[in-house]
Amino acid sequence: PPPPASRPQPQIVIPPETPRRVSSTLFLLIAVGAAIIGVAYWYFALRTQKPEIAFSPTPSTLPSPTPVIKNLRTYFGADSATIQLTNEANPMTSFLARVSTIQVTLGMTKKLLVTGTASGSAEYTPIGLLDRFLISYPPELKDAIGGDAIILLYGQLAMKSTGPKTESRLAFIQEIKNPTAYVVAMRQWDTTIVTSMASLLGYTKNKNVLVDDTYSGVPFRYVQIPDNTLGLAYATVVNKYLVIASSKDSFRFIVDTLLSK
Question: Distance from first CA to last CA of the chain, Å, rounded?
Answer without folding.
Answer: 147
